């Protein structure tokens, strides 16, 4: 069975194409829930009107399904709490010149 850590690590491959960084470093990945072969990925976007949203969700789905043992992926887009740059890793903030 897949683990939360395995899925989380795999999702580091999913990039926000506008910022050129992965969703984990950007703080867009809020949680991963694993229930046997079923995985639920809870994420946000940098803004409600983010044009890359559908592409990011497709990449999340594809990448999570590549983890051995994953058979079904549910993706939940959330705005609670709203994403802010404070959620980003220190490395991401440095690279983007924030803070």
**The CATH topology, please?**
GMP Synthetase, Chain A, domain 3
Q: Describe the global form.
A: globular
Average pLDDT for all residues? 96
Percent range for helical residues? 25-40%
Order of neighbouring strands in the sheet with most strands = 3-4-5
**Helices and strands: which structural class?**
alpha+beta
CATH class: Alpha Beta
Q: Main sheet, how many strands, which sense, barrel? A: 3 strands, mixed
Element order: H for helix, E for strand: HEEEEHEH
CATH superfamily: Fe-S cluster assembly (FSCA)
The proportion of strand residues reads: 15-25%
What is the β-strand count?
5
Name the CATH architecture.
2-Layer Sandwich
Q: Count of helices?
A: 3
> Any idea what the radius of gyration is?
13 Å
Quick gist of this model?
With 99 residues, the protein is of the alpha+beta class. The chain has helices at 4-10, 53-65, 90-96, and strands at 15-16, 21-22, 29-35, 38-43, 72-77.
Task: Report on the architecture of this protein.
- The model has no long low-confidence stretch (mean pLDDT 96).
- The protein has three helices and five strands, in the order αββββαβα.
- A three-stranded mixed β-sheet has the order 3-4-5, covered by helices on one side. Strands 1-2 form a two-stranded antiparallel sheet.
- The protein has helices at residues 4-10, 53-65, 90-96; strands at residues 15-16, 21-22, 29-35, 38-43, 72-77.
- The chain is an alpha+beta fold and 99 residues long.
């Amino acid at each position: 069975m897949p683990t939360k850590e395995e899925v989380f690590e795999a999702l580091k491959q999913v990039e926000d194409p506008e910022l050129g960084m992965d969703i984990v470093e950007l703080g867009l990945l809020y949680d991963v829930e694993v229930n046997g072969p079923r995985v639920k990925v809870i994420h946000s976007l940098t803004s409600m009107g983010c044009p890359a949203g559908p592409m990011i969700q497709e990449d999340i789905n594809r990448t999570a399904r590549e983890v051995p043992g994953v058979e079904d992926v549910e993706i939940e887009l959330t705005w609670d709490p709203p994403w802010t740059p404070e959620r980003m890793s220190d490395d991401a903030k440095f690279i983007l010149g924030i803070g």
